[in-house]
Design a protein that fits this description.
This protein is α+β, with helices and mostly antiparallel strands. A hairpin with a 2-residue loop joins strand 4 and strand 5. 55% of the residues lie in helices and 17% in strands. Helix 10 packs across helix 11. Strands 2-1-5-4-3 form a 5-stranded antiparallel beta sheet. A 5-stranded mixed beta sheet has the order 10-12-13-15-14, covered by helices on one side.
Length: 557
């Protein structure tokens, strides 16, 4: 039979509490669910606030800036058109002093048949200055010659009226021109008008590239939109042209991209945060959940609960350490209470025993003396001798019971000696083998050299005698085994028999005085064994089956 070695953990009955992940307690799941839901709600609120901030703060500010920029671009376009008119005016003032143009125009006007010379001068000017239209007009508004680009409508008239400004805008069909007029003179006499023209669309195309804008003519059918700015140009007939100027809103496009990106990233970030927090809480709550389970066990009176301390010095670790100390203190208090109750029982038994001895010893002595006198007077063949012997037997039994009561009720004061447990137990077993067990051997199993113990050898022998007697009576004729082993601070002595063992109902009362499951027993054997063990700071417990197994836990000092 293999030896069962008791450890401090097995003796205290502590067990490993299953991790929270294996049990999935309802409160932990509820906490995780509430935490994840809270994270999602907070993230959703944060996202909503962020989007509202972008929409009602950032977007509004950038819309205002964009409107100001668009309005500024419209004013710059108006100024650019005016600048282009001044350029044409300055150019016309310069070209009217061109000697070749003046002479060719003079000879043409006064010498018929010389049109090719003015035409050549006009073509030269148009090519040199990249002008869409260059024309010569007589003072009475007759066209002399012109140079006009391909696809350009024309001819482009001069500004109406001799009193009209030298530069301005005029409409020719659907085309609006920027024109400038200069007077050609010969010997201070005006001989012709030089009219330079640039289509407004060509000017606006250049301005679109300059300002990165879209410029179009607005009208009744296509008015200026809310995202466009209005530029106003005046024609030479006091009419006006409305231009709709649109500046690309790159900031709004960027904000739209940011919002779309946030719409994707925020839910993903929320999901990752919720999952990460759930995993972190699940890991952090493992000791807390185990602690809650152990607290419930402590509340039910099980003070053997011990929890592994999580690594680190956080609040959870401090809580687990405090719980372990509390559980150990409660277990110690419970043990002290149990021992005090046992001592109170012993004290009560001692008082009862003293009273019984006082009241019964004298009558028993008279009965015993009378029985001895009758026994001497009767012959060996007298039929009454059987009854006299029966009186003697039961008188001795009563006297022995009273003596046991007196002995059980007295306080135990061991005389400690340093003894070798192997030698002490072997000597006890040899005496038992000679006198009581006969052919059925007592078997000692030892794990080798054992540490010395402090014990009263007589009390130790009395305790082991009671245990061996119970084992012998539990399985008559069967061998009894004694197992001896040691741990760091405890010596374990196990007495094992092949009997029926102990029922679950009897286990709770085995060490109570006067409780017995054997007919004719007094119920003081195991109670006295427990008193002896506790007098040495030891303990006795019932081990698991099969058979009977009683463990003596003796301290090693």
């Amino acid at each position: 039979m293999s030896t069962v070695v008791s450890t401090p953990e097995s003796r205290s009955g502590s067990r490993r509490v299953a991790p929270v992940a294996d049990r999935h307690p309802h409160w932990t799941q509820s906490l995780l669910a509430r935490t994840v839901l809270g994270v999602i709600v907070v993230a959703a609120l944060t996202t909503a606030v962020l989007f509202l901030s972008i929409d009602y703060v950032v977007t509004r500010q950038f819309e205002q800036l964009h409107a100001e920029r668009s309005e500024r671009a419209a004013r710059q376009i108006e100024a650019s058109v005016a600048t282009e008119l001044r350029r044409l005016d300055n150019l016309s003032r310069l070209l009217v002093n061109d000697a070749d143009l003046v002479n060719s125009s003079y000879y043409h006007l006064y010498l018929e048949g010389e049109l090719e010379h003015p035409q050549a001068a006009v073509n030269r000017i148009a090519a040199a200055f990249s002008l869409a239209s260059v024309a010569l007009w007589t003072p009475d508004a007759r066209l002399v010659t012109e140079s006009r680009g391909t696809g350009m409508p024309g001819p482009v008239p001069p500004v109406r009226g001799t009193a009209s400004p030298a530069a301005g805008l005029t409409a020719v069909g659907d085309t609006v021109w920027l024109i400038s007029r200069g007077t050609l003179e010969h010997n201070t006499n005006p001989i012709a008008w030089l009219v330079l023209g640039v289509p407004l669309g060509e000017v606006l195309a250049g301005l679109e590239q300059t300002y990165g804008a879209t410029i179009r003519r607005a009208g009744e059918e296509s008015p200026v939109g809310p995202d466009e700015s209005r530029a106003l140009l005046e024609l030479d007939n006091d009419a006006t042209i409305d231009l709709a100027v649109r500046i690309p809103d790159t900031v709004a496009h960027a904000l739209s991209q940011v919002k779309r990106l946030l719409a994707v990233l925020m839910p993903l970030a929320t999901l990752l945060l919720a999952v990460s927090l759930a995993l972190l809480l699940r890991w952090q709550l493992r000791p807390v959940s185990a602690l809650a389970t152990s607290i419930g066990a402590v509340g039910r009176g099980d003070f053997r609960q011990r929890l592994p301390v999580p690594p680190g010095s956080g609040e959870v670790g401090q809580l687990v350490r405090a719980f372990n100390r509390m559980s150990a203190d409660l277990q110690h208090l419970k043990e002290m209470e149990r021992r005090l109750q046992h001592q109170e029982q012993l004290s009560a038994i001692g008082k009862v025993a003293a009273r019984v001895a006082h009241d019964i010893n004298n009558p028993l002595s008279v009965i015993s003396s009378a029985q001895a006198l009758l026994s001497r007077q009767l012959s060996e063949t007298d039929p009454s001798r059987e009854y006299v012997n029966l009186i003697r037997h039961h008188t001795e039994r009563c006297i022995r019971t009273v003596e046991n009561l007196l002995e059980f009720g007295r306080p135990i004061h061991p005389r400690l000696e340093t003894v070798d447990p192997v030698g002490l137990i072997e000597g006890i077993l040899r005496r038992w083998a000679r006198h009581d067990f006969g052919e059925y051997p007592l078997v000692l199993h030892s794990d080798g050299a054992m540490p010395s113990i402090h014990a009263d050898p007589m009390l130790f022998e009395q305790m082991l005698d009671n245990l061996l007697e119970n084992a012998r009576l539990a399985a008559p004729g069967e061998p009894v085994e004694v197992h001896l082993s040691a741990s760091r601070d405890r010596l374990l002595v196990e007495v094992v028999d092949a009997g029926p063992g102990f029922s679950p109902e009897s286990r709770e009362h085995l060490f109570e005085p006067f409780f017995t499951t054997r007919k004719g027993g007094t119920g003081l054997g195991l109670a006295s064994c427990l008193a002896i063990a506790r007098a040495h700071d030891g303990e006795i417990e019932i081990g698991p089956g099969p058979g009977g197994r009683v463990r003596v836990l003796w301290p090693v000092r």
